[in-house]
Amino acid sequence: QVQVVESGGGLVQAGDSLRLSCAASGGTFSNFAVGWFRQAPGKEREFVASISWSGESIWYADSVKRRFTISRDNAKNTVYLQMNSLKLEDTAVYSCAIDSTGISSDYEDEYDYWGQGTRVTVSS
Fold first, then answer.
1. Residue 14 contacts by C-beta under 8 Å, 6 or more apart in sequence?
2. Most buried among 27, 82, 87, 104, using CB within 10 Å?
3. pLDDT (tens digit, 9 = 90+) per residue, 3-60?
């Protein structure tokens, strides 16, 4: 069983930066693809970014391109989501998910294991 834990959320002002971390245990992390999803109040969960097992295939939602960067450190079993130029509409609970096939995807049903999420609140 793979455990997934997110951290790094918080309250920031618009224009600020924040880095989220996703740590996984219980499996061979370097084989996994990892995705970030978010759910804003009253909205459905949506894809944010994903990275393949090798780090060579990366996807971003259009809404976060050129502002967010996903990266991974397999030595630390951790994936990061660097979020810059945060906007009010980035306010959401951000969840990390593991795809044990290793293939980067924006389709949430492809993911096998999910964390509990970390809340990001962007204020004006």
1. 86, 87, 88, 122, 123, 124
2. 104
3. 999 999 999 999 999 999 999 999 899 999 999 999 999 999 999 999 999 999 999 9
**Cα-Cα-Cα-Cα dihedral of 105, 41, 93, 51, to 10°?**
10
Q: Kindly tell me if the per-residue pLDDT of 102 is higher than 90.
A: no
Q: What integer pLDDT is reported at residue 89 of this predicted model?
A: 97
Instruction: Return the percentage of the chain with pLDDT > 90, whole number.
Output: 92
| Nearest-angstrom CA–CA distance, 7 and 102 | 22
Pseudo-torsion of CA 61, 124, 13, 11, nearest 10°? -90
Q: Which of helix, strand or coil describes residue 30? A: helix
State the chain's mean pLDDT as an integer: 96
Q: Where on the phi/psi map is residue 71: left (φ > 0), alpha (ψ -120 to 50), or beta?
A: beta
Tell me the two tokens of residue 92. 């959401």
